[in-house]
Model the fold of this input.
Amino acid sequence: MKYWYSAFLLLVVTSFAHAEDKIINFSVQENIGLKEVPIIHVEVEISKTRDLYVALQDLDNGWKQITSKMKRLRKSGKYSLQLKVEDLKPGNYRWNAYIAPRGKNWNEKIGEQLSQNMRVVDADKYVEAIKFSNNDQIQKVVWPKVIADNSEYILNVAYAITQPRDLYIKLYNKVGWVELGSIKVPVAKPGEIKFPIADMIKVYGKGEFAWVANLSETGETEILGKKQGRVFTIE
Done:
């Protein structure tokens, strides 16, 4: 009976240890060129030393495995691996990653295998094709209507551009529309930008304020399109 209890306890402890061990995040470039090196980013949570296995399959050639690599991980955290692959040809590939007990392999893997596809283009380096918009405009400015503490909040500005532009964001006090600060950010493609901002009460005190955003030609200050703003109160 004592032996049975000890074996059961060991099984429970081992199961809980494995349940805690997992790959949290796994990523690699979605597109690369022939002379670029794949860079694997992995974040793991482990209770003891584990072996990380990463393998590459050729999706255009019957899912044939091209290469694999094992890295021993001794603690939880984020890791990066550069895996140079010889004679990589244009086509579609898939990276797979899993963890296993030290000295073990797929047959005793822990948790689920994570995968991500990668495309190799017929060029030395992959250059992202930018899809510009038909006009230049600030699409939205997102910010809380009321700030009642010094916590961090996110200022989110979305924009459309027809070519690289300068994005201006200014803060005004609504009393006399006095400018309190500004920032210029070069933007190369349509999208959005987020700024974490804290200590608003500490820095500006109570009152009525407004964020105002606009676009300009690179190196210029003349406004393109319309300004977009967000009025808010600091209590």
Residues 144 and 232 are 7 Å apart (CA to CA). The chain has two domains: 2-120, 137-234.
